[in-house]
Design a protein that fits this description.
It is built from 6 helices and 7 strands, in the order αββαββαβαααββ. It has a 7-stranded mixed sheet, sandwiched between helices. The chain is globular, with a radius of gyration of 16 Å. The structure holds S-adenosylmethionine. The site of S-adenosylmethionine has 19 residues, from helix 1.
Length: about 200
């Protein structure tokens, strides 16, 4: 495990008791709706990577019970309290403990910004996804509106310190570079948020 991943794990272990409260307003204003939109396409055997406290659980289509992976035990403990018991796996997203093409759907939200090596991360998401399956992502980055992007840049160092979050990553470019096939990408909130559907290259 990379040193940066160990740092993120320690940080999210500390944030875990407060994470849901910190997210509450954003979820209520916009994120909740986007989570539901992204997850509407989830089908079959599903894994959610860097799943945190299980913020997405209420937004999955009825009856779906995804596996949840995260590197932070503290975050996963909260997910278990929300009903994910028996389906959580403590693991590094850059080295997923699954065989190739295991899942019909691979979900990851607001996490491509926190992993140490995003190329390796997205490649792993593609590897564990079946060739006919889908990788469903909700990511954030710099706005496509330049004045807002300039403002965001001022907060990048603080974001990295507080949330291990690289707020200027270009998720679409990274997904492509990692060898996945970008099927769809939609911008929300002036391009700060992206809903992305990708497929493994061979699919
Ligand atoms: C900003 S939180 C997002 C949590 C959740 N996906 C959500 O939408 O609210 C980022 C999560 O990524 C996890 N994470 C960071 N690096 C990771 C890695 N290498 N492997 C697995 N999880 C990781 C953190 O522990 C944290 O739970």
């Amino acid at each position: 495990m990379q040193a940066e991943t160990r740092r993120a794990r320690a940080l999210y272990d500390r944030l875990a008791p407060r994470y849901d409260r910190m997210e509450q307003v954003a979820n209520w204003l916009l994120l909740g709706r986007l989570r539901r939109q992204v997850l509407a396409a989830a089908r079959g055997r599903t894994v959610e990577v860097a799943a945190g406290t299980g913020s997405n659980l209420p937004y999955y289509p009825p009856g779906m019970r995804p596996w949840l992976v995260d590197v932070s035990e503290g975050m996963l403990r909260r997910a278990v309290e929300k009903g994910a018991a028996g389906r959580v796996i403590l693991a590094d997203a850059e080295q997923l403990p699954f065989g190739d093409a295991t899942f019909a759907t691979v979900v990851a939200t607001l996490s491509g910004c926190t992993v140490a090596d995003p190329l390796r991360y997205y490649a792993e998401l593609g590897r564990v996804c079946r060739p006919d399956g889908r990788v469903l992502l909700l990511e954030h980055g710099l706005s496509s509106w330049r004045p807002l992007a300039a403002l965001q840049r001022l907060g990048l160092r603080r974001q990295l310190r507080r949330f291990a979050c690289h707020g200027d990553r270009d998720a679409e470019a990274l997904v492509r570079l990692a060898g996945l096939r970008l099927e769809r990408s939609e911008q929300r909130a002036l391009g700060v948020l992206r809903l992305i559907t990708a497929r493994p290259a061979a699919g």
